């Protein structure tokens, strides 16, 4: 077993003399710069995500919803969009524990959106959403929960570390880019695509004359752009 300990060096601008928040922001920028150097298409992918959120929210502006189930699902959609931007910001900063905690929440939210369609609301309130219905992303729930709950020392490896030798780790006081970053972004992409399905279904229920074509075109553009990127999750999707 590796003997882990904290060794805070000056490698990540630990001693700027300007305080913790300044150093944190500096290291976030370094982490983001490293991510964008490795995956320059990320702004295009994220921009397409937020463009979908923009179009979706514009269509819903001023819509009156009388059905309690549809209203609940609409509010869940609003929560998903807000949280997803926050989760992606943490990912871009290589703050993997923070992003994993929010992605776990997103997975549960998608599960609840699906449950609203087939269950009485009274049977859902007070219960944790059943993520087994969110395939194939549900297989990640255990891992995300372990990280969110700080279940063991190994889950805190997501803080980021470098091996000094075979027996010792140097944990990072501030975020640093690592392989967990792009893996987390892949999870965010998968959850976004599942949200799109739920958002289309929701709009059919509350927007008179809703035409799915625009959203369908947006998804095709998203996937085609992603296919031409070097982002592992999107490379695996057939368009």
Please, could you describe this protein's structure?
There is one protein chain. With 239 residues, the chain is mostly helical. The chain has one domain (3-235). The chain has 9 helices and 3 strands; from the N terminus they run βααααααββααα. It has helices at 20-38, 42-60, 68-92, 96-116, 121-124, 141-148, 179-206, 213-227, 232-235, and strands spanning 3-5, 161-165, 168-171. It has a 3-stranded mixed beta sheet, with no helix packed on it. A hairpin with a 2-residue loop joins strand 2 and strand 3. Helix 2 runs antiparallel to helix 8 (213-227) and helix 4 (96-116) packs across helix 6 (141-148). The N and C termini lie far apart (44 Å).
Tell the overall outline: globular
Rounded to the nearest angstrom, the radius of gyration is 20 Å
Major beta sheet, specifics? 3 strands, mixed
Count the strands? Answer: 3
Q: From N to C, what is the helix and strand string?
A: EHHHHHHEEHHH
Q: State the low-pLDDT regions, or none.
A: 1-13
Distance between the termini: 44 Å
Q: What is the percentage of strand-forming residues?
A: 5-15%
Structural class: mainly alpha
**Order of adjacent strands in the largest pleated sheet:** 1-3-2
Report helical residue fraction.
55-70%
| Overall pLDDT metric | 86
What is the count of structural domains? 1
Number of helices: 9
């Amino acid at each position: 077993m590796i003997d882990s300990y904290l060794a805070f060096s000056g490698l990540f601008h630990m001693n700027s003399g300007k305080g913790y928040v300044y150093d944190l922001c500096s290291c976030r920028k370094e982490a983001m710069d490293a991510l964008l150097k490795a995956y320059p298409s990320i702004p295009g992918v994220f921009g397409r995500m937020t463009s979908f959120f923009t179009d979706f929210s514009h269509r819903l502006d001023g819509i009156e919803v009388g059905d309690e189930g549809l209203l609940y699902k609409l509010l869940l959609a609003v929560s998903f969009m807000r949280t997803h931007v926050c989760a992606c910001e943490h990912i871009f900063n290589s703050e993997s524990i923070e992003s994993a905690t929010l992605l776990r929440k997103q997975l549960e939210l998608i599960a609840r959106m699906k449950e609203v369609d087939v269950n009485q609301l009274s049977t859902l309130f007070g219960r944790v959403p059943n993520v087994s219905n969110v395939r194939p992303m549900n297989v990640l729930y255990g891992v995300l929960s372990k990280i969110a709950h700080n279940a063991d020392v190994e889950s805190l490896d997501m803080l980021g570390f470098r091996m000094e030798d075979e027996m010792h780790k140097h944990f990072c006081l501030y975020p640093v880019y690592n392989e967990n970053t792009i893996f987390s972004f892949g999870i965010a992409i998968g959850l976004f695509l599942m949200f799109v399905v739920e958002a289309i279904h929701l709009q059919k229920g509350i927007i008179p004359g809703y035409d799915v074509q625009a959203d369908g075109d947006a998804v095709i553009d998203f996937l085609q752009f992603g296919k031409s990127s070097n982002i592992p999750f999107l490379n695996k999707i057939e368009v």
